[in-house]
Amino acid sequence: MMFKKSILLASAAALLGAALGTVAFGQGAAGPFTQAQVDAGRQAFADNCSACHLADLAGTNDAPALAGSAFMGAWGKRTTGELYSKISKTMPLGRGASLDEATYTSLVAYILRANGATPGTTAFTSSTAVAVSSIANGKMPAGLNTIRTATGQTVPPRRPDPGRFSLPTKFGLMLKGNIQNYVPVTDEILRNPPDGDWLMFRRNYQGWSYSPLKEISTDNVSKLTLKWMWSMPENGTMEITPMVHNGIIYVWGTGNTIQALNGKTGELLWENRLGPAPRAPGPGPSTEETRALGFWGNNLYVNTPYGMVYALDARTGEEIWKNNIVDYKPGIGGSTGGVIVINGKVLVGMTNCGRPNNDDHCYISAYDAKTGKRDWKFVTVALKGDPGGDSWGGLPDNMRKGAETWIAGTFDPDLNTTYWGVAQAKPWRRDLRGSAAGDTNYANSTIALDPDTGKLKWFFQHGPGESLDLDEVYERVLINHGEQKTLMTIGKAGILWKLDRVNGKFIAAKETVFQNIWSAIDKNGRPAYRKDIVDQKVDQWLSSCPGPEGGHDWQATSYHQPSDTLIIPLSQSCVFMLGNGSQTYFEMPGSDGNMGRLSAYRTNDMKPLWSFQQRAPFLTGVISTAGNVAFVGDFDRVFRAVDVRTGNTLWKIRLGTTVQGFPVTFSVDGKQYVAVTTGLGGGSPEAKPSTMLTEVHRPPNGYNLFVFGLPDDK
Fold it and tell me: What pLDDT is recorded for position 478?
């Protein structure tokens, strides 16, 4: 399949403006900042930046490294004035320009010192313009990220004052439950869930995010009212799916706080704080959440961002067993995508797993649902000797990194196959990771596994050699078109893919948003990159449409089975980026400034059906129902219901802060409800627009669960 080649819209130089004049300093000369600024900047960095960029400035996920060779490669030829401008306008995350000038100048001084620049006697100011490479060499002085106390001890900078944020101080079973008449969840129930339940990430094994409930319909959805709300811990990231079984809602909160609530009244039934406390108070990076829980038997299964998997008694909240997904090491390992329970096994993926020069790799692993014993693991990086193992350009195994799985998979019981999306290789720039033009399997791929053994059945790579942080890790939706068993997925590049899920063969692709990264996709589904992307250099600005916010990200699609309609939350933003991850965003051509888009496609022939645009991006997944209603929430605090046939808004309400996570619908005593969460965090889709949507104002708190329903009969 061919796409019309898109041209570069503008040069990076034209967009960014001419560089400021520079002053020549000899390497190692005293920099234009003072030691007092470094000391103040060290604490300011701990307060405002370390949660994402890490204490050693090494960066993680969406946060680029601020020290070392990658930083110098991207910033060495630029000026300190440009660095100040970038930081002061866009940082901290989601709160650009919120600090005073003295704090921003101190932060720049600290970053320069962390890259080997030497303090002098002249204070740094917002107008200081010195070539970064003339004073810095990328080598961090020993002990820089510690402070000296009055007694002469060296300690890390203090953690930020939690203030209003409710960091848990006590852990364990806080309230033991006694849920009566609990119905154990069997394999058959998971394959054919009761209409009123929501037992897994996208409700059914096929990943539809569709409910057969129809009490709430296009005729009466305008009458929805708030039934109750529940406040949740005010820190970390909110991307959860409220899980529902027999009228009981189970939710995950930051600090790994698990709670069971009466779905009709909102009363707390049990609470277990598994811990530990979040790394820092307030909204954090997208590695601090769990997207979905799982059920089997009498147990509730929880994976944690710190690399653990738990089984809790769903009736009482008591711990049954726990196991390490990985042996914890600082900055290595974790799990955020949620679990899927298949054939008595708990399957879970990994994130933040593996840095260069060590033996750690990402993998999907399975645990016996009764005992917690690990049954198998599948490494998502193709190592030497594996199928696709020659695709890393000769890199040794310990340099093959990334390929995270931070969205739970789906499952076809008839084929006994589970399908997972795999994220990009690390470092995400091919010129930095040293893989040349290699495909880097199984990064940016769909992989099909035997859930009983973990054996690879097939894989299909959507973005071979990906180099712009445009991963294809998101939901895999399983749809039958007549006798043909298909799999559909969409990633950051905004391409809707259709594969044969029996053998992984490419069927079709559809461009949903403007893109300029690929000039063509051939008959086998292999895309061809623009030449300047292939020939990239670390100090070169590259344009990318979509940008790393993603044409589509973790906000999941919904498949409305009665009408064969896939409803997709899309984002419309582009970026100029440097090799260290530095990014300058601009609005996508043809969007008229509308970053948020909700679009519907008929899956049989990929035909677009309708589209709705708005300024603010959508920050929830979509759910649809047999009542022909779909629900979605956005960055600007609006939760709305739309007609699945037309996209017309039928009802909306504005909540306290960003509507974020995965809404669900369920029933209790025959009455249908809709639940959704609000909160912050959320990675690229939540962080990137804040540099453009300066007119949107959101409070830094308001983590809540809201439950809506129709008015009670009188």
Answer: 98
